[in-house]
Specification:
single chain, 59% helix, 467 residues, mainly alpha, DNA-binding transcription factor activity, Fun_TF, globular, disordered C terminus, transcription cis-regulatory region binding, 18 helices, zinc, two-stranded antiparallel sheet
Length: 467
């Protein structure tokens, strides 16, 4: 017998139905983990479920998300997801028509329903839903300067929009420059000071030593680096948001690539120079972020591979925030190598840079089982994998995407098919050959398509800040 409630308001003391309890647990464990990717305090896992006890439309939205996840992984028929979704959307629509409605409650519920749409709708339908929610968020005055739950809702909304736009080559409707994000880091001079004087030559993942060599030891420089890192402890999500902003800017730059030349050669040259200036500014922002980010957001371990487990490098990052940040950084750098206005994307240096950063994205995803990370990483993995040329690396990416689909329920058939089309082998193609480790381990890895020759040596990546 459950205790009686003395609550005379609409707020529920607790969930009492087994189905509701189970679906809420699924929401917290499987859906909130990627909704909270850009939020330090993980509001959708830690705060929103309690708010749902007093807000029926929000509760139904969360239960719909939990039921939809179970349907995606084949543990539910989907009817319950539709039931809770219809309840939530009807209640939200009714609430929006009330004169004394709470705009924050409506915006929060709309954000939760967008998670359902992300798991259900086509891209164009999804973008329409995100746009409606964006209007509610902007009406509340929420942006990157907000705090608490308001900030959490903002980042879920722009996160869904940016990742969808990256996937389909669309520009974002909410200009990243209007997000209100603190961009004080985005100068090379400021980044150099905050990083203890690191140079661009030391800017890639594994080339910066934790301490200067003994012969160049300088206490003041060490103190500066330690002080900067200490100041950023607990602020890793801010640096994730900063590189996410940069990635959004790069994605918009790619989406706005002119499709036709100007009639006048002079006008075309002016346009090219202007775009190249913007391209260099974005490149400098990537470098500034990489120089200025705290040590906790750089790899703790790095094994270049290949190994029996994966062709790709094992880039070990301890925190989920660090994994996401490096994924966004390498995605932005790979995209930049594709859209240099004055240098063809298939030039030797640009091809090498794309491969370098694609290998790091693939390596981070291939070596992690963090579901919150891999759900967000799908778009980055799909975009950068187009640069891969080795058949066995491509096979491994397909295997990784299939693993993610199996583990998370995301329907990735279109993503895989798009990659196959980009690679030109929908019906399969000849597997490349190359040397691999000798012995049983090497033979087994070759049989699984897990070994490939390393990148060509002597290819410089200095223009894009690569190693």
């Amino acid at each position: 017998m459950t205790p009686s409630s003395e609550n005379t308001t609409d707020e529920r003391d607790y969930l009492s139905a087994d189905e509701e309890i189970h679906l809420m647990q699924v929401f917290i464990d499987e859906v909130a983990i990627w909704m909270d990717a850009l939020d330090k305090d993980k509001h959708f896992a830690n705060v929103v479920p309690y708010l749902a006890l007093r807000l029926p439309m929000l509760l139904n939205a969360l239960l719909a998300c939990g039921a939809k996840h179970l349907a995606l992984i084949g543990r539910h028929d989907g009817d319950k997801a539709d039931y809770y979704y219809n309840m939530a959307s009807t209640q939200l629509s009714r609430s929006q028509q009330e004169r004394d409605r709470d705009p924050a409650d409506c915006a929060l519920t709309a954000v939760a329903l967008d998670a359902y749409h992300l798991m259900s709708d086509s891209p164009t339908q999804r973008m329409g839903r995100i746009a409606s929610t964006r209007a509610l968020i902007r009406a509340c005055g929420w942006d990157a300067t907000s705090t608490g739950l308001a900030a959490a809702c903002f980042w879920v909304n722009v996160g869904m929009e940016v990742l969808s736009c990256i996937a389909f080559g669309w520009p974002t409707a909410w200009d990243p420059d209007q997000w209100g994000l603190d961009l004080s880091f985005a100068t090379l001079e400021g980044a150099s000071r905050s990083s203890g004087g690191r140079s661009l030559a030391e800017s890639d993942d594994v080339s910066w030593p934790a301490r200067p060599p003994a012969e160049s030891h300088h206490p003041a420089a060490d103190d500066s680096a330690d002080s900067a890192d200490s100041a950023d402890l607990g602020r890793e999500e801010l640096w994730v948001q900063r590189i996410f902003y940069i990635m959004a800017k790069v994605s918009n730059f790619r989406a706005n690539t002119p499709q036709f030349q100007e009639p006048s050669p002079h006008d075309e040259q002016v346009r090219l120079q202007n775009r190249f200036a913007e391209w260099r500014r974005l490149q400098n922002m990537c470098n500034a972020w990489n120089l200025g980010c705290p040590r906790s957001m750089r790899p703790y371990g790095y094994s270049p591979g290949p190994s029996p487990k994966s062709l790709f490098p094992n880039v070990w990052l301890i925190k989920s925030s660090a994994k996401l940040a490096r994924l966004f950084y390498h995605t932005a750098m790979c995209l930049l190598a594709q859209v240099n206005p004055l240098d063809p994307r298939d030039s030797r240096e640009n091809r090498a840079s794309q491969l370098h950063h694609a290998h790091h994205v693939c390596g981070i995803v291939a070596h992690t089982r963090d579901r919150g990370v891999v759900s967000v990483a799908i778009r980055s993995l799909a975009v950068v994998s187009a640069a891969l040329v080795d058949r066995r690396e491509r096979d491994e990416v397909v295997a990784v995407l299939e693993r993610i689909q199996h583990e998370t329920g995301w329907k990735l058939g279109r993503v895989i098919q798009s990659l196959r089309s980009t690679w030109g082998w929908e019906a399969g193609g000849p597997a490349s050959s190359g040397p691999g480790p000798a012995g049983p381990a090497g033979a087994a890895a070759r049989g699984m398509g897990l070994l490939a020759p390393p990148l060509p040596s002597g290819v410089g990546l200095s223009r894009l800040g690569g190693r």
